[in-house]
């Protein structure tokens, strides 16, 4: 079992520490250290390559995984586009656990300022379980719908599975102040807002 208490080894946390060697070249016993100093070669810092035409996103730091989507549980992450155009891509960070028996549905809805979906889905895609990994990674769909700058929308994520579940990656420090997240335990019929929480996502809008 990984040191974060999860039974899914794909969710194991990383531990970084320098290796030391004996005079014969054998690796010395590894001891856990709270911190260590390391001199790096001169170079430029790395960075993540942003998605094409990215418009809204909530960063990459401070997120934790949790699995509960399925068996009636749904999540709704809202966002507000900065430009009018076509919503060409939506990426939602997820993973599977316990062998879900149905795919992950990602739909786009209009949303109100209380972070609730309004009306029918503007687009909906079911991603098969076989296309979703066991560790958190971006699951990307292409809604190809028109969105308007300043209008609130939301990503509704749920599954018809009655076994296993799908995960989310969340941050409770409001990394995306332009949005808001809500939770449902009746498959999306009603939602309640979870203050300060953002689910890891990004949207791309092309003109």
3D architecture notes:
By secondary structure, this protein is mainly β. It has one domain (54-206): Jelly Rolls (Sandwich). The protein is 0% helix and 41% strand. The protein contains no helices and 15 strands. It starts with 53 loop residues before the first strand and ends with a strand.
Provide a short characterization of the protein structure.
The chain is mainly beta. It contains no helices and 15 strands. It has one domain: Jelly Rolls.
Topology:
Layout: E1 54-57, E2 64-69, E3 74-79, E4 85-94, E5 96-97, E6 104-111, E7 117-127, E8 137-141, E9 145-147, E10 153-159, E11 165-171, E12 180-184, E13 192-193, E14 198-199, E15 201-206
Antiparallel strand pairs: 1-15, 2-11, 3-10, 3-12, 4-8, 4-9, 4-15, 5-11, 6-7, 6-10, 11-14, 12-13
Residue stretches low in confidence (pLDDT < 50, at least 5 long) are none
In one word, what is the shape?
Answer: globular
Q: Largest sheet, if any?
A: 6 strands, antiparallel
Number of domains: 1
Which percent band covers the strand fraction? 35-45%
Helix amount: under 10%
N- and C-termini, Cα separation: 47 Å
Give the count of helical stretches: 0
Q: What is the helix/strand order?
A: EEEEEEEEEEEEEEE
Task: Quickly list its features.
mainly beta; five-stranded antiparallel sheet; 15 strands; 0% helix; globular
């Amino acid at each position: 079992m990984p040191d974060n208490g999860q039974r899914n080894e794909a969710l194991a946390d990383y531990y970084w520490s320098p290796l030391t060697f004996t005079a014969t070249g054998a690796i010395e016993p590894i001891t856990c250290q709270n911190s260590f100093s390391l001199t790096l070669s001169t170079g430029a810092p790395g960075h993540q390559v942003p998605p094409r035409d990215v418009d809204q996103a909530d960063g990459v730091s401070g997120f934790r995984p949790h699995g509960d989507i399925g068996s009636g549980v749904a999540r709704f992450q809202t966002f507000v586009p900065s430009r009018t155009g076509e919503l060409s891509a939506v990426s939602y960070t997820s993973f599977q656990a316990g062998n879900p028996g149905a795919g992950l549905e990602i739909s786009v809805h209009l949303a109100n300022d209380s972070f609730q979906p309004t009306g029918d889905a503007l687009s909906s895609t079911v991603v098969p379980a076989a296309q979703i990994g066991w560790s958190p990674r971006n699951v990307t769909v292409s809604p190809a719908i028109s969105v308007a700058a300043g209008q609130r929308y939301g990503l509704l994520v749920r599954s018809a599975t009655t076994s296993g579940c799908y995960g989310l990656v969340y941050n409770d420090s409001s990394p995306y102040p332009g949005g808001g997240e809500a939770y449902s335990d009746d498959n999306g019929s009603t939602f309640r807002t979870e203050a300060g929480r953002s689910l890891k996502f990004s949207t791309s809008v092309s003109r």
